[in-house]
Specification:
This protein is α/β, with parallel strands linked by helices. The protein is built from 8 helices and 14 strands. Helices cover about 30% and strands about 30% of the residues.
């Protein structure tokens, strides 16, 4: 009769346990946040399917497409994550030809502009002649005008969106830095205001990338001159346009902003505030977003 060595069961158990731990280690490694596009090369205007994995599922988290090499604070073309979903797919439209990144911002409420995962891809030019870049596909009150020389539209009643029960269309121009020291803060203010949860819930805020594409296609520039704000707002079918400037002297950051009504063809509100450092600036931006929401809602009554 053949006898089994008394240590063999122990060896089998030990081997099985090690295999289990190694497999678990692989699973934990796979738990790292990931984003990936369905292709590596697209043509302009093609649909981009972005797959995300191991997301925490917070409603304020978001994924964006932005130019490779741009600052992590550049929001680009972004979408918020579906609440409660750890994995899924978001669909974007391929921008103009160039090199781009998909970036995921998980646990944004705590971490801010810290990229949790990124993936690079390329957009190539079409073989046929490039079509004129059209304004964004978000629902707007009035179709955009194609010719830059077109005069301002005489009237877009603010009641159009309030009576219909829909939110106002709002464009936020890049806050112009008035000194080199303020360049970084201009980006901070612009992106923080665009991504403000209150602004996103209250209005249809035009994505930053859509605005930039439209301005580039029509040879226009964004600034805080009222006529320019109203002109561009009219072409885009916006109800309101927000713009401003920012300066820095020592540790003091000064921000000025104005809200223009496209239908009223003028400024309906001006504001300014000073901050002592970036953390204080973020706090003031949150307060500014509350003031902006209140002013626009009063104007729409």
């Amino acid at each position: 009769m053949r006898r089994i060595h008394p240590r063999l069961p122990f060896i089998f158990c030990f081997t099985f346990a090690m295999c289990f731990l190694l497999s678990e280690g692989t699973a934990f490694a796979d738990g790292v946040p990931q984003v990936k596009t369905d292709k590596d090369v697209y043509t302009e205007g093609e649909k981009i399917r972005v797959n995300f994995f191991n997301a925490p599922g917070y409603s304020r988290d978001w994924i964006c497409i932005t130019a490779s090499g741009s600052a992590d604070t550049d929001a680009g073309d972004y979408q918020y994550m579906p609440h409660g979903q750890s994995q899924g797919v978001l669909t974007f439209e391929a921008p103009v030809p160039g090199k781009y990144e998909v970036r995921a911002y998980y646990n944004y409420s705590r971490n801010g502009y810290v990229v949790s995962a990124r993936h690079s891809f390329t957009v190539a030019a079409k073989d046929s002649p490039a079509a004129v870049v059209s304004p964004p596909a978000k629902p707007v009150a009035q179709p955009p005008v194609a010719q830059p020389s077109e005069k301002l539209m005489e009237s877009i009643p603010t009641e159009d969106f309030s009576v219909a029960g829909g939110p106002a269309n709002v464009a936020i121009f890049h806050f112009t830095p008035l000194s080199m020291d303020a360049s970084h803060y201009g980006i901070t203010v612009t992106n923080a205001l665009i991504n403000s949860p209150g602004m996103q819930q209250a209005f249809l805020v035009l994505p930053k990338k859509d605005l930039e594409l439209f301005l580039s296609a029509n040879n226009l520039q964004q600034n805080d001159e009222v006529d320019n704000m109203v002109d561009i707002g009219t072409r885009l079918g916006m109800n309101f346009v927000i713009a401003g400037t920012i300066t820095k002297r020592g540790s003091t950051i000064s921000t000025s902003y104005k809200i223009a009504s496209v239908a009223g063809r003028g400024v309906i509100h001006k504001g300014q505030f000073t901050s002592s450092g970036e953390a204080d600036l973020i706090h003031h931006i949150e307060k500014m977003s509350e003031d902006v929401i209140a002013v626009i809602r009063r104007s729409a009554r």
